Request: fold
Amino acid sequence: MKKSVISFLSILSLALTAATASAASRIEYILDVSGSMNALSGGEKRIDAAKKSLTAMVQGIPDGTIVALRLYSHRVPPADKAKSCQDTELVIPFGPINKPQFLSVVNAATPLGQTPIAYSLEQAANDFVMGADEAQTIILVSDGEESCGGDPVAVAKSLIAKGFKLKINVIGFDVDANAKNQLAAIAGATGGQYFDAKDSASLTGTLQKLTQESLVIQKAGSSVYGEEIRGGDNYETAVPIPVGKLLRLNHHQKVNQYDYFSVDAKPGQKIVVSLETGEKGVNIKPDNSYEENLNPYAGISLQSPQKTQIAHQEIIGGKNDARQIVFPVPTDGAGKYYVLVGSSYDNQHKDHRFKVEISELFDAGSKQDAGDTRDTALVIQPGTHKGYVNQNDEVDTYRVSLPAGSVTIRARPVSEKVQMGLELFDADGVRVGGENAPNPGAVAKLENLPLAKAGEYVLKVKGGYNPSESEYSLEIIPGGGAAPAADAGAPPAPAAPAAPTTPTAPAAPTSGETVYNPLSKPVPMPRAGTGALTPDYQGIAQLWKQMDWKQKAKVVGFWTLLPAFFGWLVGWIWGYFKGRASGKRAAAKQAAKQITAPPAG
Reply:
């Protein structure tokens, strides 16, 4: 297995000669964190040499430079080849470089999986804007060739054919002849350069050289990029915004005035609104004449189809700064959304850039979101599917036909912050079974769940309470075989049709069962025969496992301070009454002395 990569996409737009230069380039670094990066080169592990070289390189990047960082093969072991060959992540999106953050992410990377160079380049293309008037660079570091069957050279050629103004520079870190040929061909396909590096020193020098060459230094005023556009003056005249294009206004905008744009979105999609400032601000005079200054202000907001604000971002006096709004469309949120461009703090220069992107988070390979209810459920077949949950879409509902016998269902989240849950209902709406994962990041599963009859079932997959955005894999595996016999505890076969009768209510949950409510956290049922106020210690233990460390600290602190408070209160009350009693006794003694004392003289 050959490893690849530090393909860190280009550092981005730089140029910054004091106040006379500005950035017009983007660099994304892609780093290979495959298992082979644990091998020794020049007396030290390759991954340690790469971290050392990147640390030295980052220190020389000018502040304000726009960079991004992508890793691959850092999350999934090589044994699970299918998933490891899709293990690539944009760990730092494009923005002005934050050196401590960049180095923290790099130093935390641990070599693990395969070498999916082709797939990583395909995903990296989504990080750039196709056709943007800017220099776009990827700097890829890899210690081996593609190991997942992809063709990274063909991918590189296709990106150029699609219109990306992209140059891929590649560093082969202690590679053999086959890997060198492939990596050099990737660079050649985009007009980039290839370099060999045998140790930390040569890797550092090459990274610094490629980074410096990727910085485009231009005179002030010549770094303007993005397609000019003008929006409407209100919601009714909002202009449809070109999705995925980098834009800028064709006019300066007065404070508290806005250009209105619109974009259509539906459940299963995510709206991403980005804003970037340049070097200059503007002062608009009462007669509409203007003067440029060095204090850029910019604002952007996302509004719902009901014309209410979802989120707003402002950049206040920040040069080459960036902000972003990310909004997954909720299950009932289909419609026209509005983007308002303008600052509520100061006038906005026309050359600040903005962009609206739509990402697809559709479930089960469809072009729609699995709804929350039976009526909006997505029809699927047994097998393996991919879905998404987020804070606006906590529940996915599926309809699936299953044979009698048994079934195994598993839901595995990609994110370690999401706690999955499963519930299965039959065609009559009767709950057949349900289970929550024991902790965030774990698999929720229904193993060999008995099915009394064949037919259509409704499956609810839940991502926990207010989950972070996460992909999950869903496995539905019918067990096959005939339905359990009646004497084995299975329900009897239905009798011949008879006169309609009033349906009986579903049986109550068995003693100690955790009832899974798809719209809330699980609530433990009281144990049978013990009374509603008897604590369910298993349920309490389960809730304790679901808490993060902050929640646990609050609980421990509360129960630690509560006895101390009651102890102080009891002591105070006891002292109060004891003091009053002592005072009364002292007063009585004093009165007695006055009565028995002999008269003077």
